[in-house]
Design goal:
Length: 137
């Protein structure tokens, strides 16, 4: 049963890392004039040696620059994280851009710009039953 306990431990450590790194990254953005980013998620390896840190950018066009800057600052950010958290070993930080927000926005824009596609799709669902034309009266 120890595997389920370690699973919960990694979840707890990930959540704590996300909170602490959120503060540390926010401070680094201000201090070093980086493009504005925020920590959206942290995935930690089972042995707690590595942490994938996912960030979103206020300006998606500057996301590559932001991630590059964070990678350069990673040793310093890791040191600050070690001071903030009581961990025997502070994980290596690996920064990645989280594009899920951008993808959601582009889907939103597509739906907004092409409402006819949504209407057509809803119409075809309604006509599958064989009754009526699928259009509201």
């Amino acid at each position: 049963m120890p595997s389920s306990k370690s699973f919960h431990r990694t979840d707890r450590v990930s959540a704590q890392l996300r909170r602490e790194l959120g503060k540390i990254v926010h401070e680094a953005v201000r201090e070093h004039g980086l493009p504005s980013v925020s920590v959206s998620d942290v995935e930690i390896s089972r042995d707690l040696a590595h942490a994938k840190v996912f960030v979103t950018a206020l300006q998606p066009e500057r996301s590559l620059e932001a991630v590059k800057d964070l990678k350069e600052l990673a040793p310093n950010l890791r040191y600050q994280l070690g001071k903030a958290m009581k961990l025997r070993h502070v994980p290596e930080l690996h920064f990645h851009y989280d594009d899920s927000v951008d993808r959601g926005e582009s889907i939103d824009n597509l739906l907004r710009d092409h409402p006819d596609l949504v209407d057509r799709e809803e119409g075809s669902e309604g006509s599958e039953g064989g009754e009526g034309s699928g259009k509201p009266e």
